[in-house]
Amino acid sequence: MSLAQAGFRLVETGGPRLFCFYPTEAEESVQTVGPYSFPAASGAPAASLRQLLIVISHGTGSTPLVFRELGVRLARHGYPVVGVEHPGNNRNDNRLANTMAILEQRPRDIRRAIDWARAEWSVPERAVVIGHSLGGYTGLACAGGQGSFYTQPFSVEPDPRVIALVLLAPAASWFQSPGALDAVRVPVLMLTGDKDPHAPPFHARVVTSGLPKDTPMDHRVVANAGHFSFQDPFPEAMRSPAFPPSQDPEGFDRAAFQQQWHGWLLDFLKTFSEPPRPA
Q1: CB-based contacts of 134, cutoff 8 Å, min separation 6
Q2: 82, 148, 186, 259: which one has the fewest Cβ atoms less than 10 Å from its Cβ?
């Protein structure tokens, strides 16, 4: 399949804002949203969509734009992509951070994003959730994980349209109760960094030990990677030791690693992909 161009739309839903990347035949140009720039055709019509939706859930207090290069790359390979900006837990509005309310809300945000994409692009009800940090919690909850806020259990309705998960340095401490992950039976690709102070190996063990034994799991520990190493490189003006997401362990090449892990992801997605259809 020849590579498409990437289209881009920013969609206001009245709930989560959606940062949408998708294949198009229109010519790309440089788009700038806040401090981030990327190549895409703004507002262009979609074309030749693969029949698999990719939904990205960012970490706490973050933004889908830290995965803008990933969105462009997936779109060029034919995938419709929706980056979900979680209300009350993003870089512009973080009032719900560290609350049970946001743990309950985040999976609903994903459901709304899938609903929107299904109506907009007429794609089948098949979605892969990519989640970083608290986005990893979000993906597991969408796939059937039942969490606890410290000692208080809460219930999240799973979404059967989620058919696979990609967990990037997932925050999994919410799933320590016995049986919390028993209902998660979709294939999982999990990437963790061996120098991650925010999601140390304990979090990965919660996932690997909690998933049913017959749940397909590919766990890759990335040497010398930190918590934020899975995000796109930040613009030069944002790189500073005072801004931890822009930093990596000494000697780690984030830009080169993006090419590597994006390749792993594309190989993983091929397992579920169907031939593209005209939009």
Answers
A1: 57, 59, 60, 89, 102, 106, 171
A2: 259
